[in-house]
Design brief:
The protein has 298 residues and is α/β, with parallel strands linked by helices. It has two domains: 207 residues, TIM Barrel, CATH 3.20.20; 70 residues, no CATH class. It is 43% helix and 14% strand. It contains ten helices and seven strands. The strands form two sheets. The chain has a five-stranded mixed sheet with strand order 1-2-3-4-5, covered by helices on one side. A hairpin with a 2-residue loop joins β3 and β4. α1 crosses α2 and α8 packs across α9. It is globular and about 55 Å long.
Length: 298
């Protein structure tokens, strides 16, 4: 049975990453910082990885923090050939079909990263392959290789986009068998949880919000991440672009979810030093929109 949509309060963050995927912090450090920030409910949503769940719960119990830890994950998937992401919540982290599929994805990610690292190393790039793949991560993304190269002194003037484009010259890398949107949602629901579309404005130009939200509803998503710091930092979007996008998103959600939807808030925090200002960004948007996330925001 799908859970009834409930309001999401300002003292919550439903989108966080640890060093077990592409974040920097240990789950223990993340939970401790959440307590310092006065958060009451958080979800660790590592990419294609559930290993942080147990560590975070242990830390919360040990420190007697009154924080509700929602089981979470961010799953990379595909819609009509386009890469998107969903967020899964409140599922059984020991569900074997879900865990087996994640193990397959993690193995594919390791093989892809090794492929690129080996070819760069042959060119003299400063990357130690076994050291790279021997880190704490369980789900290795291309950004891990990018960071390793930067640590060794190899940088790209165009940043990560230039790095990612440069990898294409190596030809066909081992494929990461990412699930379709339908499969990803089915995996989460089969484990007893529910799924939402992650940061929908990122797919506004490529897919279209009406199309994206309708597809999410058809696949079984219960709503979308609504408050998100799209304009955070020097490379963030212009505020007017975010404002227009959120208005359009709200209209799309009303059309596809006439009976109400989950609308969550998430900082997508990877670096604990950025967490507090990212939370402030969410609060600013919520004040401007005149409502906190949740069904009432529709």
């Amino acid at each position: 049975m799908n859970p009834r949509p409930q309001p999401v309060a300002s003292g919550e963050d439903w989108h966080l990453h640890t060093h077990l995927s592409d974040g920097f912090a240990h789950p223990h450090a993340l939970v401790t910082r959440a307590g310092e920030l006065g958060l009451r409910r958080i979800a660790i949503t590592d990419h294609d990885c559930l290993d942080a769940v147990r560590d975070a719960r242990v830390r919360a119990r040990a420190t007697q923090l009154e924080i509700e830890l929602i089981t979470g994950i961010e799953i990379d998937c595909r819609l009509e050939g386009q890469g998107i992401e969903i967020l899964g919540y409140a599922f059984d982290p020991e569900n074997e079909p879900l865990r087996a599929r994640l193990r397959q994805i993690q193995a594919d990610r390791r093989a892809r990263l090794r492929f690129f690292a080996e070819r760069l190393a042959r060119e003299g790039a400063p990357v130690e392959i076994e050291q790279l793949l021997g880190g704490p991560a369980r789900a290795y993304l291309k950004v891990h290789l990018y960071r390793a190269l930067a640590a060794g002194g190899r940088t790209y003037a165009g940043g990560y986009p230039e790095f990612s484009a440069d990898l294409r010259r190596f030809g066909d890398a081992p494929a990461v068998r990412t699930p379709s949107l339908d499969e990803a949602v089915t995996l989460v629901r089969g484990a007893g949880g529910f799924a939402l579309l992650a940061h929908p404005l990122y797919y506004r130009e490529r897919i279209g919000l009406d199309r994206l939200v309708a597809a999410g509803r058809a696949a079984g998503c219960l709503g979308a991440e609504f408050s998100y710091p799209y304009d955070f930092g020097p490379r963030g979007w212009a505020p007017e672009r975010v404002r227009d996008g959120l208005r359009e998103l709200r209209t799309a959600i009303r059309a596809s979810f006439p009976d109400g939807a989950w609308l969550t808030r998430g900082t997508d925090c990877h670096d604990l030093a950025e967490w507090e200002p990212r939370l402030a960004w969410l609060s600013r948007w919520e004040r401007e929109l005149g409502a906190a996330p949740g069904p009432a925001a529709l």
